[in-house]
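Chapter summary example.
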Amino acid sequence: MTSLDSVLDKDGVRLTVDDAVATVTLTNPAKRNAQSPALWRALTEAGRALPGSVRVVVLRGEGKSFSAGLDRQAFTPEGFDGEPSFLDMARGPEAELDATIAEYQEAFTWWRRNDIVSIAAVQGHAIGAGFQLALACDLRIVAEDVQFAMRETSLGLVPDLTGTHPLVNLVGYARALEICATGRFVHAEEAERTGLANLVVPVGELDAAARDLAGALLAAPRDAVVETKALLSGAVSRGYEDQRVAERAAQGRRLRDLAGITD
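The structure predicted for these 263 residues follows.
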């Protein structure tokens, strides 16, 4: 595709494509990229609109904050224009509420597809839904001013946008519980030390660092990266012996492919 081809630009989300690298940008800095159901639908649409040539997706937010989390308008009686308020949703049938939350979660699930590697470039506040969106990605580069926090419990809620699984995998159960239950801030040094962040850089170098990492990820053949990602992501749920079997099967596929052998 043409360099920096704009694929989607709506509801606070812009998707651009530059050959094998796509960039998803949150584009409402005046509200610190606060999130809404419309934004979540746009994120889901962005995932579905990715061309097959894309290998790396960079997620970033315009302005001083990556995302301040859910727009508090969701909790007002009027909610968002054209949307049921969260209060009205809570009064409806339980099955409908469950289906609605599942739809919202789709905005957070596609970032870990095996055919892409996703990088969150995070600066400033990444609160609640913003924290969970960063956690949805495979890798995180953060600016020195980053402030992660899971504030749902302070509102009487729980994190429900797929963030609990990667958080526990990254920092362990005890620290994840403490972070969620207290709602405290996690800053750059702790994020890097505990595995939440792959790299910490000065604020002004964040976009360049994300571009450099994207370039490094493109250096290896695509199929080898896809197989390796599948192996590593599956290791969480496999036992040691099952992982050995998976490694052998994946390597066999790679060797047959390199030898030009088709099944």
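To summarize the output: DSSP finds ten helices and ten strands in the chain.
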